[in-house]
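Exercise 7. Predict the structure of LDHD protein from Pterocles burchelli.
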Amino acid sequence: GGSNISTAMAVREQHGHDESMHTCAPPDAVVWPQAVGQVQELAALCYRYRVPMVPFGTGTGLEGGVNAVQGGVCFDLSRMDAITELSLEDFSVAVEPGVTRKALNSHLRGTGLWFPVGTVGTGAASGGAMGAELGCWGH
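Solution. The predicted structure, encoded as tokens:
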């Protein structure tokens, strides 16, 4: 629906660059899926019509990975921000890609666990970026 898609230039420019030195390359549209099924449907449509897909977490990357150099649709996953499972016994947590490290640590407060700053960097790093980091750590 209308609140989950934008073709406004300001929104497209916001999603067409990260913290890198690369020049902004905005997508043709930005969508905010809120469930895995929506991501699947959007991806199938993009695949069918050969439209590039560009994932967007929080825009804190340093490599230019959100630049839509061939246009396409930006999938802003920030609204997929649920923490779906937490196991204190094996130090594991399942999160949707829009969960930030800061939100995860807020959720973990009082458990004796936290998610450290590592290669991810800022508190704004999203679950997609955190996936590279391997779990929660105790203190």
